[in-house]
Write a structure and sequence with these properties.
Pfam families: Pyr_redox_2 (PF07992), Pyr_redox_dim (PF02852). By secondary structure, the protein is of the alpha/beta class. It is 33% helix and 26% strand. Strand 21 and strand 22 form a beta hairpin. Bound molecules: flavin-adenine dinucleotide and 1,4-dihydronicotinamide adenine dinucleotide.
């Protein structure tokens, strides 16, 4: 019987990063993966394919709409969707191979099959009707998440799709109806809208992107509407009739009232994700779940069963790849007897649309609700020189600082490259820095990041360019 120091179940960003860190710390490690390829949701049907399509569709749109004003004259771009899907697949393959390489480099055994926990120190791995049992000192559950489904609406991944189907449509839908104005709806809605689809987003709440700062979300909605998105807020899809050539979706006001019917070629259901624990045998093994089906852990990622830990989408917290990765590193260090730690106050979130939206720390709504006295500094990209010359002036930077100590509590950005810009705020917040620290840090000119410095100056009411 094979024996290990650590067996990690699942090879998404949480699992494979955990395995690498554990190997670096001298452990003999195996990963168990039921999927044909390594990398989990993120590499195969999540972060990476969506970013490839976002990039390619943005280039398509730029060529059609932005080149001419810069004096770059091209004939009207034509869409070759199979080639675009091939570009996406090459990106997936490259990253998946990268994970395979990391497993080899770190001498991590890859066991293909479905992992089941038999008890402390025992995992069964089943594939093709055969099962083997492996022994290990520790087990990390990193089995991720699955799509949330709408009762009565069957996802066929052709016409009624989840994000997985929406990443592989074989033609541009004439009309795309999106259920849920969260991250997936707005990112994948952007892809298909840029390629020519009419997009209508139905959202249960009265705002888009719940959880993001309200002021940022409001401006983002306006920008998306200007791009051509239509929103139906405070509404829910209760049924989709797929018997005819076009789909007929029944939409009801969230607060109750008369229903209406909307026609669409494709319906994308993206109303969140749920933890994935199927086939793990958790109940029998004695691993407790919380009331939302997530594996319950203590502050050191330990589950209710000795020697079994859990990280990533399958536990509480934001369902983000970088959160899973950081937990993977932390739990490996804890198992090795070190002081692994994740600072949940400084986990950035990014929506990779045009413009991008990024955020770290508290929103204005959260500070109000917690009764924290705060000051706000804002700076629009219309007043940022680099954005002006590039004619990409949508959006602004917003900094929230503690009114007494000036410590930065939250930074929210809407604008081109906001996803790259947020990290100076993360570093500052990780060190407990103040708006004054940011305002006195020299920023290269001309960069979009100068808008962050100006927003920090605006906290003290002394922005220069406004
Ligand atoms: P996963 O990546 O879900 O990996 C879990 C792995 O476990 C899978 O490979 C699965 O096959 C395997 N597994 C499950 N059960 C078993 C078992 N019993 N035995 C063996 N193997 C098993 N996050 C970001 O931060 N940025 C983004 O841009 C982003 N974009 C996204 C876009 C889309 C369309 C989607 C759907 C998600 C996106 N996410 C993004 C979220 C991100 O993909 C997840 O947060 C991340 O993948 C979670 O990592 P994980 O390791 O916890 O689990
Ligand atoms: P989400 O939680 O971001 O958004 C779901 C939206 O659907 C919410 O606005 C919610 O109010 C709405 N909703 C729920 N039920 C509804 C109903 N019946 N009718 C209408 N609207 C309804 O979830 P999403 O977009 O599915 O993404 C899942 C997760 O994947 C994200 O939360 C995120 O963690 C991760 N992800 C991250 C990305 C990134 O970091 N860029 C990109 C894509 C996904």
């Amino acid at each position: 019987m094979a024996t290990y120091d650590l067996v990690v179940i699942g090879t998404g960003p949480g699992g494979y990063v955990c395995a690498v860190r554990a190997a670096q710390l001298g452990m003999k490690v195996a990963v168990v993966e039921k999927n044909a390829t390594l990398g989990g949701t993120c590499l195969n049907v999540g972060c990476m394919p969506s970013k490839a399509l976002l990039h390619a569709s943005e280039m398509f749109e730029e060529a059609g709409h932005s080149f001419a004003k810069m004096g770059v004259s091209v004939s009207s771009p034509k869409l070759d969707l199979p080639a675009m899907m091939n570009f996406k697949q090459q990106g997936i393959d490259g990253n998946v191979k990268g994970v395979e390489f990391l497993m080899k480099k770190n001498k991590i055994d890859v066991l293909k099959g479905t992992g089941k926990i038999l008890g402390t120190g025992k995992v069964a791995v089943s594939a093709d009707g055969k099962s083997q049992t492996i022994e290990t000192k520790s087990i990390v559950i990193a089995t991720g998440s699955d799509i949330a489904r709408l009762k009565g609406i069957e996802i066929d991944e052709k016409r009624i799709v989840s994000s997985t189907g929406a990443l592989s449509l074989d033609k541009v839908p004439g009309k795309l109806l999106i259920v849920g104005a969260g991250v997936i709806g707005l990112e994948l809605g952007s892809v298909w809208h840029r390629l020519g689809a009419e997009v209508v987003v139905v959202e249960f709440l009265d705002r888009i992107l719940p959880g993001m700062d309200g002021e940022i979300a409001k401006q983002f909605q306006r920008i998306l509407e200007k791009q051509g998105f239509a929103f139906k807020l405070g509404a829910k899809v209760t049924a989709v009739d797929s018997s005819g050539k076009t789909l007929k979706a029944t939409i009801e006001p969230a607060a109750g009232g008369a229903a209406e019917t909307l026609e669409a070629d494709v319906v994308l259901v993206c109303i969140g994700r749920v933890p994935y624990t199927d086939a793990l045998g958790l109940k029998e093994a004695g691993v407790a779940l919380d009331n939302r089906g997530r594996v319950q852990i203590d502050p050191h990622f330990a589950t209710s069963l000795k020697g079994v830990y859990a990280i990533g989408d399958v536990v509480a917290g934001p369902m983000l790849a970088h959160k899973a990765e950081d937990e993977g590193v932390a739990v490996a260090e804890i198992i090795a007897g070190q002081a692994g730690h994740v600072n949940y106050d400084v986990i950035p979130g990014v929506v990779y649309t045009t413009p991008e939206v990024s955020s770290v720390g508290k929103t204005e709504e959260e500070l109000k609700q917690a009764g924290v006295a705060y000051t706000v500094g804002k700076f629009p990209f219309t007043a940022n020189g680099r954005s002006k010359v590039n004619q990409t002036t949508d959006g602004f930077v917003k900094i929230l600082a503690d009114a007494k100590t000036d410590r930065v509590l939250g930074v929210h950005i809407i604008g081109r490259e906001a996803g790259e810009m947020i990290h100076e705020a993360c570093v500052l917040m990780e060190f407990g820095g103040s708006a004054e620290d940011l305002a006195r840090t020299c920023h290269a000119h001309p960069t979009r990041s100068e808008a962050i410095k100006e927003a920090a100056l605006a906290v003290g009411k002394r922005a220069i360019h406004m």
